[in-house]
Amino acid sequence: MNDLNTKKVNEVISTLHRIFKIVLILFIILLIYLILLINRELKVTSFLFIILKIISPLFIGILIAYLLNPIVNKFKKTKRLYSSLILYSVIILLLILFMYLIIPNLKSQIIDINKYLPDFVDKINIFLNNFISKVSSSSEFKINVKTIINDYIILITKDFPANCLNIINNTISFLTCTVLSLIISFYILLDFENFKNNIYILIPKKNRRRLKRLFKKIGEYIFMYIKGTFIVVIIVSVMSFICFSIFGLKAPIFFAIFNAFTNIIPYIGPIIGALPIVLLSFMISSKTGILVSISLIIIQIIENFIIQPVVMGKTMKLHPVTILISLLIFGYFFGIIGMCLAVPITAIIKTVILFIDKKYKIFNFDKIKIVEGRK
Question: How far apart are CA 87 and CA 95, in angstroms?
Fold first, then answer.
């Protein structure tokens, strides 16, 4: 009798626990919806972006100090001040070398693309006329399609110089922010352990050990992602530049960097990067278009099957569906930058959720993993 009552009580508790989970999920969805409504009405996101832009050198400085700390720690026999000075001297020299070699060439190549655009538009129009004539004999259809495509091309070509100028201005702003961040990170790096301990003082003692483990795990994710992404971008940039230069694509440095940075975005990034490059290469000649297309496919295969597994591994431990959803959400609110940061931020959110769940047993993710492992 007692066993029967205990079983019924356990079933009731289990049912209540399930109801609680459903209510909690609905509450989270409602909370997100309310935040989106408030953001739309009060434009909180734009205000937060201004604040983040102002204080970004501080956060970037902390991140740089965290990333460089393991390198400085390796120079055990050298004083921390001297090892930090040597490391930062190398970084500054590399930045100066980058600015001296790449930026002037990049600027001249953007000007060349701008000069080539009218000819590019004429070639597209000839190609479209021939293609539409083969597809349909309806004159109205031809006019409508041509009007839509021409309007779109004019919009792109009209805004291209301004967009390129914005890219250059943003690059200069980025370099200024980087210099400020390096100065801040240098002073933090000189006394990194004390800086880290001072942050932990703000956390209550009972939660300090757990949160240290959490921050350590998040830090490892960030470090591995940034290091891996940096290596991948350099390798893809170099491979793209070599291929584009050999096959006669105009502005090879510009398109190599563009291709490498769009590859940061999982799944859809390579498509975003490849489309304008392939289109432009076919406008030069069919041979150039075919060779550039083949080179992009080979670069993508090398990146996906050789570079990514070796350099990145499975550092983020995220399901493809989770990555796609995060890309859609971050892309909608924060554009291309949001899509680039979607994966590491989602990984951090996942780590925090698992940490909270482990402590408070809200969803019992650990038990779900055990059951899935047995299956």
Answer: 13
Domain match, 6 and 105 both: no
Q: Highest mean pLDDT: which of 30-34, 38-42, 50-54, 224-228?
A: 224-228
Residue 238 — very low, low, confident or very high, per pLDDT cuts 50/70/90? very high
pLDDT per position as a tens digit, 303-347: 877 777 666 555 666 777 777 888 888 877 777 777 777 888 888
Q: How many CA atoms lie within 13 A of 204 on its CB side?
A: 2
Q: Does the pTM exceed 0.70?
A: no
Residue 347 lies in a domain: no
Q: Which of 202, 228, 251 is the last residue before a domain boundary?
A: 202
Output the six-digit token pair for 375: 């299956």
Please compute the mean of the pLDDT values over residues 247-251 and round it to a whole number.
82
Torsions phi, psi for 314 (to 5 deg): -115, 55
Structural domain includes residue 95: yes
Query: Both 143 and 38 in a single domain?
Result: no
Q: Are 92 and 13 members of one domain?
A: no
For 232, other C-beta atoms within 10 Å of its C-beta total 19
What pLDDT is attached to residue 193? 80
Separation of alpha carbons 336 and 327, rounded Å: 9
Per the structure, the count of domains in the chain is 2
Q: Would 105 be classed as within a structural domain?
A: yes
Query: Residue 21 is part of which domain span?
Result: 1-42
- Cα–Cα distance list, 265 to 74, 127, 216, 312 (Å): 33, 31, 25, 14
**Contact of 344 with 225, CB cutoff 8 Å:** yes
Are residue 190 and residue 83 in the same domain, yes or no? yes
